[in-house]
C-alpha cells in the first residue's frame, strides 16, 4: 500500500512514521520535504497552488492534514478549502481512486454547546470562521466522492497537545494562567493518539463512517486541568478570575464512535498525557 500524506507537518509526520512501521510506502507532500525523516518519501508541494506533483499510481489511501498559515479566515480558506480542492483535483487529474481519503478536521465545527455533550449525530453549528471553513471542507470532500468507491472520512480532532504543543503548561509556568470562574469544559487529544487514530481509521478492516470525533476520554473542566499542571510542576495554583472567552466554545465531546472501532488510547485522559509531556521536558516536579 502507498499512503499519500497531503500536508506533512508535525501530526502528518507522526502518522507517516506509524504507517511506515506497519510496512506501507509513505509519500509526504510538504513545502520543505528535506525536513521529513527518511521513512517518508518527501515531495515538494505547496497545496495552495493548483498544480501539484503527480499522485503515485498505486496510492491506496490519502490523508489530508493541512494547517493554516495564520489565524485568519483567508488563511483558513486557502489551506482547508483551496488546498483540499487542489488535492482532490490532482487525484482526478491523474486518474487515481484511493480506497480511503481522510480529512483532518476539528471539533470547532460544533461551536458552543453551553457545556452539553456533542457527538457525530449532533448538528454542526460553528460559532466562528474556523469552524465554518472546516465544515465547508468536510462537505466538499463528501460531495466529491459521493457515489464513488472511495470512502471519505473527516476526523474532528479536539485541541492537540504533546511535544512542542505546551500552551497550557507554558501559561502555568509563566504565571499567565487564569482559572475561569465558571465551569468551562475542554476537549483534547495527545498528538500521538491523534496520529494513531488517523492510521487506525485509514487501515482498519471495517469501512469507516463519514465522521469521527477524535478526543480523549475526559472532557475536563479547564480549572481542573490547570490545577493538575500546577501540582505536577510544584507551582502555586493559578488564580481564579476572568479568563476571557472560551477557546472553541464550552462543550463536552463524546468519543464513543471512535472507541467502537476498537481504537485504544495511549493517553486516555489529560493526566497521563501531560505527565508524559512534562517528563519529556524535564520540568515535572518529583
TrEMBL record:
Keyword Oxidoreductase found: yes
Pfam families: Epimerase (PF01370)
Assigned keywords, A-Z: Oxidoreductase
Domain NAD-dependent epimerase/dehydratase as annotated: residue spans: 12-204
InterPro entries on file: Epimerase_deHydtase, NAD(P)-bd_dom_sf, NAD(P)-dependent_oxidoreduct
CDD domains, sorted: SDR_a4
Catalytic activity, EC: 1.1.1.290
Keyword Oxidoreductase: yes
Listed PANTHER family: NAD(P)-BINDING DOMAIN-CONTAINING PROTEIN-RELATED (PTHR48079:SF6), PROTEIN YEEZ (PTHR48079)
Protein name: SDR family oxidoreductase
Amino acid at each position: 500500500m502507498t499512503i499519500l500524506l497531503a500536508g506533512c507537518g508535525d501530526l502528518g509526520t507522526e502518522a507517516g512514521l506509524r504507517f511506515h512501521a506497519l510496512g506501507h510506502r509513505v509519500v509526504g507532500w510538504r513545502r520543505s520535504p528535506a525536513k521529513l525523516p527518511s521513512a517518508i518519501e518527501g515531495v515538494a508541494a505547496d497545496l495552495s497552488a493548483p498544480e501539484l506533483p503527480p499522485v503515485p499510481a498505486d496510492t491506496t489511501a490519502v490523508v489530508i492534514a493541512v494547517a493554516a498559515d495564520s489565524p485568519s479566515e483567508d488563511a483558513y480558506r486557502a489551506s482547508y478549502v483551496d488546498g483540499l480542492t487542489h488535492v482532490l483535483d490532482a487525484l482526478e487529474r491523474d486518474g487515481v481512486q484511493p480506497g480511503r481519503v481522510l480529512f483532518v478536521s476539528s471539533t470547532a465545527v460544533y461551536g458552543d454547546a453551553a457545556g452539553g455533550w456533542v457527538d457525530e449525530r449532533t448538528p454542526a453549528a460553528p460559532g466562528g470562521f474556523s469552524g465554518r471553513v472546516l465544515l465547508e471542507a468536510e462537505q466538499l470532500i463528501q460531495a466529491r466522492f459521493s457515489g464513488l468507491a472511495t470512502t471519505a472520512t473527516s476526523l474532528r480532532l479536539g485541541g492537540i497537545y504533546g511535544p512542542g504543543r505546551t500552551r497550557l503548561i507554558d501559561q502555568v509556568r509563566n504565571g499567565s494562567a487564569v482559572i475561569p470562574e465558571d465551569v468551562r469544559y475542554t476537549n483534547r487529544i495527545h498528538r500521538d493518539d491523534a496520529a494513531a487514530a488517523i492510521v487506525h481509521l485509514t487501515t482498519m478492516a471495517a469501512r469507516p463512517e463519514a465522521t469521527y470525533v477524535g478526543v480523549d476520554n475526559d472532557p475536563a473542566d479547564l480549572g481542573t486541568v490547570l490545577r493538575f499542571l500546577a501540582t505536577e510542576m510544584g507551582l502555586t495554583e493559578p488564580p481564579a478570575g476572568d479568563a476571557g472567552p472560551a477557546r472553541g466554545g464550552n462543550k463536552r465531546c463524546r468519543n464513543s464512535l471512535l472507541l467502537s472501532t476498537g481504537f485504544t488510547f495511549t493517553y486516555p485522559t489529560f493526566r497521563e498525557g501531560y505527565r508524559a509531556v512534562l517528563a519529556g521536558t524535564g520540568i515535572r516536579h518529583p
